[in-house]
Write a structure and sequence with these properties.
Layout (H helix, E strand, L loop, with lengths): L8 H7 L16 H4 L17 H16 L3 H13 L4 H10 L2 H7 L6 H9 L3 E3 L2 E2 L12 E4 L7 H7 L10 E4 L4 E4 L14 H8 L2
Antiparallel strand pairs: 1-2, 1-3, 3-5, 4-5
Helix pairs in contact: 3-9, 4-5, 5-9, 6-7
Length: 208
């Protein structure tokens, strides 16, 4: 399976904002964008030029894609699916990305980053309604219960979570720390996305 293997902090620097790709490190003084806010590469500190309309649309698409850790082909498939659903395409796109199992694991606080959540899912540590699911792009539904596999509960990471966590869970989810499981109370809406995305630019990009 194809995946991004380079330094993820370069992605934040390229987009000019924190995408929270490395968990706790993003909140510390070690955050790369806090130390070096310029784009990566030898020309990163050059005087910024005015970005074209296409450039702004492309950067917004890359920002969303990198935040959720989705490669181009899968992102385009998600967009096409969003376009077929009734409603605003941009809102539908973000809602579909929020419903990904790896994102839900991250939102519940079972992982410190989406990358770690994706690894937990791929390594079969996560269950949905009591059944093992190892597909990060799996779409959760209302009423689904996401938990940690019984054999994985003795991992140090999950032991620490049972002792308490300060992670803030979005209103469309609930999390029970002692049981290491969360419930999908409702499908996510646009207002549940806490990142400053301009999704209409992505719709404009793909509509050309």
């Amino acid at each position: 399976m194809a995946r991004y293997t380079e330094a993820v902090c370069r992605q934040c620097r390229r987009e000019g904002q924190k995408l929270f790709l490395k968990g706790a490190r993003c909140y510390s003084a070690k955050c790369a964008i806090s130390k070096r806010p310029t784009p990566p590469g030898m020309h990163g500190q050059a005087r910024a030029r005015k970005m074209s309309e296409y450039g702004m649309q492309l950067r917004e698409k890359q920002k969303v894609r990198r935040t959720y850790g989705v490669l181009e082909t899968q992102f385009r498939r998600t967009f096409d699916k969003a376009a077929r659903v009734k409603g605003v395409t941009g809102d539908n796109l973000l809602a579909l990305l929020e419903r990904r199992l790896d994102n839900v694991v991250y939102r519940l606080g079972l992982a410190s980053s989406r990358a770690q959540a994706r690894q937990f899912v791929r390594h079969s540590h996560i269950t949905v309604n009591g059944k093992k699911v190892n597909i990060p792009s799996y779409d959760v539904e209302t009423g689904d219960v996401i938990g940690v596999r019984e054999k994985s509960r003795d991992m140090e990471h999950f032991k620490a979570l049972r002792e308490g966590t300060t992670h803030v869970v979005p209103k469309w989810l609930t999390f029970e720390a002692e049981q290491l499981q969360g419930t999908v109370n409702a499908l996510p809406q646009r207002e549940d996305v806490d990142m400053a995305f301009e999704e209409h630019l992505i719709v404009e990009l793909y509509s050309k």
